[in-house]
Amino acid sequence: MSATPLLELRGIDKSFGPVQVLRDVAFTAHAGEVTALVGDNGAGKSTLVKCISGIYPTDAGQFLFDGRPVSIHGPRDAAALGIEVVYQDLALCDNLDIVQNMFLGREKRTGIVLDEPTMEQMAAETLAGLSVRTVKSLRQHVSSLSGGQRQTVAIAKAVLWNSRLVILDEPTAALGVAQTAQVLELVRRLADNGLAVVLISHNMNDVFAVSDRIAALYLGQMVAQVKTTDITHSQVVELITAGRSGSLGLPADPAPGSNGNGAEPADPTPGAAR
Ligand SMILES: Nc1ncnc2c1ncn2[C@@H]1O[C@H](COP(=O)(O)OP(=O)(O)OP(=O)(O)O)[C@@H](O)[C@H]1O
To answer: What keywords does the record list, in alphabetical order (predicted)?
Structure first.
C-alpha cells in the first residue's frame, strides 16, 4: 500500500436546501485496501458517494487523487479518474447477456459493426483476472444468473474500464451465506489486485471480514477512520449509533465543523473478539 491515499477528501460540505447532510467530511481510500464506509440510515453515506462520483456537486472542500488536487464536476470526470460505483440495484439489463451488459453504452466496434470477439475476450479476461469461475457462459442472459453472479458481473463491469477506485454499495445485502462469501472474496481480490475499494455496508460481519479500514459517518460527520485491526465490533456500533466511542478516545461529542477522521484510537484493543 502506498502512503499517499489514492483518493483524499478534505472538508467536504453538502447541503440540500437548508439541510446540511455532510459537514466538514474528510475521507481517504488507499490503493490495495478495502475501506468500509459505515453509518446509520441517513448518516450521509450515499450522499458522500454521489459527491465522489460527480453526481452531486459539493458546497465546499477539496478532492485529491493520487495526491493531486482534482475537480469532479460530473460523472464523466469521476470516470476519467477511474472511479466506478456499483449501486445496489446493479443497473444490469435482464434481457441482455453478460458481455452485452459489461459493454453496455461503451460497445467496441469495427466500423459500424459490433466487435463481438474483442468484447467477449475482454469480458473473459476481466472475469478470469478476478478468478471468477462461477459463470458458465458469457452469453448467458443476466436474468438466468443468481444474485451473487449478478453482483459479480456488475463488479466485473466496473473494473473493465481501467478503474482505480471501485465503490460498492451494499454488495451482499440481498445475498445468502454462500453467495455473500463469494462476493466478499471478490471484494478482497479487487483490493489485492491493487484497486482502492470502498465498501458501504450495514453488515458488521462483512465489514470485519474484508476491510482494512473503517470510516464511520454519524449525522453527516466523519467521526472516525481507523484501521480495522484497531477497533472492535462494539466500538464500531457505538460510533454508528452515538457518533463516539469512549473506549476509542474519540471526541466525546463531535462539535459541528470538527471531525475525528484519521484519529488513532487512544486505547485500541487489537485482536479483541469480533
Ligand atoms: N436529494 C436530497 N434532498 C434532500 N435531502 C436529501 C437528499 N438526499 C439525501 N437527503 C438527506 O440526506 C441525509 C443523508 O442521506 P443518505 O442517503 O446520504 O444517507 P445514507 O447514509 O446513505 O442512508 P442509508 O443507509 O439509509 O442509505 C438524509 O437525512 C436524507 O434524507
So the answer is: ATP-binding, Nucleotide-binding
| CB-ligand 1 contact for 35 (6 Å cutoff) | no
- The interface predicted TM-score of the complex, written ipTM, equals 0.96
Q: How far apart are CA 204 and CA 20, in angstroms?
A: 27
Nearest protein Cα to ligand 1, atom 27: 41
* Domain map (residue ranges) of the chain: 7-197+214-220
What span, in angstroms and rounded, lies between the C-alpha atoms of 157 and 150? Answer: 10
Best residue among 13, 23, 45, 200 to mutate for probing ligand 1, ranked by most atoms within 8 Å of CB: 45
Q: For 64-86, what is each residue's pLDDT tens digit?
A: 999 999 999 999 999 999 999 99
Residue ID of nearest Cα to ligand 1 atom 28: 42
- Model's pTM, two decimal places? 0.86
Distance 75 CA to ligand 1 centre (A): 19
pLDDT digits (tens, 9 = 90+) for 191-232: 998 999 999 999 999 999 999 999 999 999 999 999 999 999
Task: Looking at the CA of residue 56, tell me the nearest atom of ligand 1.
Answer: 1
Fold of 7-197+214-220: Rossmann fold (3.40.50)
* Nearest protein Cα to ligand 1, atom 5: 16
- Beta carbon of 44 within 6 Å of any ligand 1 atom: yes
